[in-house]
Amino acid sequence: SNPILEYFYGYRGDQLQEQVGTGSGVIISEDGYIVTNNHVIQDATEIEITLNNKESYTAKVIGTDSKMDIALLKIDAKEKLPYTTFANSDSVKIGEWVLAVGNPYNLTSTVTAGIISAKARNLDTSGIQSFIQTDAAVNPGNSGGALINQEGKLIGINTAIASETGQYAGYAFAIPSNLMSKVINDLQKYGTVQRGVLGVEITDIDGALADKLGLKEVKGVYVRNVKENSAAEDAGLKNDDVIISADGTETKTTPELQEMIGKKNPGDV
C-alpha cells in the first residue's frame, strides 16, 4: 500500500494482494489431525495443507493455545495417512541425536540433524517456558515441524530460534511432546486447554538466595508468595518454601516445575 499513489491514482484497498505465509506441521493421526504452531496459522482466513505427495487440502482449526503456541488442525484426506507417534520427552537426554523436519524457506521436507543441547530452557517470553534446545538447523518456515529421535518418534515441535539476524545461528527450541500431548488432548476433548494452577509466585534459586536460606545445594524453586485460597495454600505450602520435586521428579528450576504443573488438569493431585 502506497498512500502517495493512492492520493494521485485512487488505489482502493480491495486491490491489495493477499498475503501468504508458510510453515510446517506434523500429522499425528491417520484420520488427518495435524499439529503446528499457533503463530503459523494465527489470523489466517484460510489454511491450506500440502502433503508430501503434493495433495492439497483445506484445513479446519480444531483449537489453539497461544500460551503454548500450539494449534490443532484437521483435514479430510482421501485415504488413511501415515502419521508420527509420540516419544516420552521427559526421557530424552542431553547429547542425544535428533532430527528436525520441516519446510524452511518453503523448501519441501528438509531434514537437519543435531543434538539435544539443553532441557527445560526458559526464553523469558510469555506462556509456559520449558523448551528442548537443539543445535539442529532450524530456519523461518520450520515452525510447527517435527523434532524426532533416532527411532523416528516425535519428541517436540520446533517453535523458535535464538538469533540476532532472524536466521539460524546454532540455537533452536522445541515444545516437548509430553506438554504438547496434554494440550492436544484437551483441544480435542474440550476445544480449549484445561490448565492446572498451583497458586504461587516462584523464582529460581541462585547462590545468594541459597546462602540466605541455608541450603546445601543451589537448586530448587523458591516460593516468594503463596496466594490466598489457592491449591498451594490448601496443600500447606508457605512463603520461603523451596520446591525440590513434584510427583517424585526433581524440579531444579522454575521451567521444570512449570512444565510439571502444565501437564496437570484442575483437580489433579
If you had to describe this structure to a student in words, what would you say it looks like?
This protein is of the alpha+beta class and 269 residues long. It contains six helices and 17 strands. The chain has helices at 3-9, 38-41, 177-190, 207-213, 231-235, 254-262; strands spanning 26-27, 33-36, 48-50, 56-58, 60-65, 70-74, 97-102, 110-121, 131-134, 146-148, 154-161, 172-176, 200-204, 221-226, 242-243, 245-246, 249-250. It has a six-stranded antiparallel barrel with strand order 7-8-9-12-11-10. The chain has a four-stranded antiparallel sheet with strand order 1-2-6-5. Strand 5 and strand 6 (70-74) form a beta hairpin. The longest helix has 14 residues, at 177-190. The model has no long low-confidence stretch (mean pLDDT 87).
